[in-house]
């Protein structure tokens, strides 16, 4: 099985992006039983989709997981929904700050992650790693990458399964944001290994109660 | 202009649902310059869509706003996205608790609210009422009602504009949930009046920065 | 019974202080069965204690409740502890920002509120008002006023019973601080009436479980 | 320099207590340049003070730091205040649940930590570890241990300096409490080493702004 994992450049004034640190460490370790490829994505509405398409064309993965920073969240959170909307509360790394714009003109309003997110969360919790399913990836570049990934899977890369993981600040980042939760790099990397092995091993999700009342 | 506003039955063990209290009070007051109709919706995955369709057929509104309780949120929150997914963390009032089921077989993955949500939030804040745009209405009956409303607008009721408002616990509810925020009934009703007058007055939204990084 | 209630000047950039608004409205209504006096306190480490002593000398109350703003809290919170420490995260209204200084040289490290705080919280919740006992009033002017009040009761004003109530932002304030909880002025005033009538009627507190593990 | 560090037994249904895990790991590593002693404390209002006194008599430390679990907090939090109050929201490990009782009959209402808490927090943040000063250690056994430690220092063990550190859930605990923050054991142990070396090296605290408005 060929697996692509991406992490983002630092943005929003942070000196590091935990997603890039984590996927690079994962790349150094490798994933037994699979061909693992790690690529950086720019935090840019225009360049992230290009970089993603280029990586898919080059690597032809069976499975792709984009990883991004969610400063303020406490858990590994597997996104379930990507929406066809760019609405940026801050500028991206190119200085672009789109407002209420579709990501793909004429594309569907949303895609659902094509990964067994509940099974992955159950496995993470079982392994002692805090995790949840999330129902919104926001409307910044993380959501854009997830949307483009699933749109590419639905159009030019049939058979590709993909999704998105949001991760907390690293402790060194939270140290500069009093009160914010964090997660150590090793826990994140362990989580990535587990998510990828669950997703590689099964296509159908666990049928367990979940979701949110609001 | 003909306007339909709905509120839900109490659920999840609460003796009241602030949405039903608020829309009933709004109904008693009326909305100058428009024909306002108020209807209750059952907190039921199967019966809420039926009641909604029946109300639309009977009343033929130009504008419809469904209102629901978001216990734990602090603000009036205008939902932007409804997803084609029923995933219930608790049973509805019929004892049904669907897992990972589409609301409408073959329907689009999501609808966006057809209301000027940013303009409404700006007007609410200007009027001294705490408000935000929300990117997830959950996967329970509130999201289901919003999805069905927008699906009906897209299919059998062309010209209908609609959306969803989540509101906090009432103080009397938060009094039984220590630490939870609340909003008084009068603030909610004032907010409803303002949202409806903004939505009645304009179709296009304000072009201001918004959204969320995650 | 003679009762003094105080509220603070706006601080920290806020145009209003909900505590001053609430005690003034309470003063307009009066409290049946008691002589109620309402006084403003400056948000100043040096002038608040002077104003408090002057009011006590002038009015000789049996009961005194200082009220202050706790932006970010969701409930009426009755403070249990005042500490002999001035440690200001922001400047007060005189531009003073003391660091790690005792409020009263040689005074006890702390005073406990001389009010039935658990009984008041139980009555508030019973009446449908969100309320809790708090174990820290901070180290700014609110804590200073509470400490000085209880120190004056312990020294020059024997028989005086006193305490402190922190209240949330008003809705109009929270409207400028997205995500923050609020409480309407009427709920706060109803809460004040109830707290004062409970405190006037009984000196001993309810013996119910409470407190915090951390 | 002789240093005592204590951690607590698991309580409240948790299978582990991160404080005991962390101080044991610290004990295995040792602290270069000092004689480090690690002792467990029972989560018991009656037995914790006895165990603490016994350890002080046996070991005669110059510095003592008690460590406890604060499930729900995101940071290493150095407590500044211990109050003479037992008010237990849950039963301790002996089944005792005291309500509104002094810890030491006739003792002062509170003690302040006799450690440079701001200097330690600054060093922790500088080292990339999330940390804050806290103004309340609660009213359960953690606060009781801190109060007794500082009371013993003020009475029978002159010259002893002491304080209290609250730490977050471990990831494996937060995995069972969705939404709660956590901190890895290695980060906690690194934090402990740093706190102890700062406290061993200096008695006076950093003069920097701090505290809380409420």
From TrEMBL, chains A, B, C, D:
Enzyme Commission numbers on file: 3.4.19.3
GO biological process: proteolysis
Coiled coil: none
GO molecular function: pyroglutamyl-peptidase activity
InterPro entries: Peptidase_C15, Peptidase_C15-like, Peptidase_C15-like_sf, PGP-I_bact-type, PGPEP1_Cys_AS, PGPEP1_Glu_AS
Signal peptide start and end residues: none
Statement: the UniProt record of this protein carries the keyword Cytoplasm: yes
One Pfam entry name: Peptidase_C15
PROSITE patterns: PYRASE_CYS (PS01334), PYRASE_GLU (PS01333)
Subcellular location: Cytoplasm
Keyword field: Cytoplasm, Hydrolase, Protease, Thiol protease
Known partners and oligomeric status: Homotetramer.
Protein purpose: Removes 5-oxoproline from various penultimate amino acid residues except L-proline.
UniProt family annotation: Belongs to the peptidase C15 family.
UniProt protein name: Pyrrolidone-carboxylate peptidase
Native organism: Deinobacterium chartae
The encoding gene: pcp
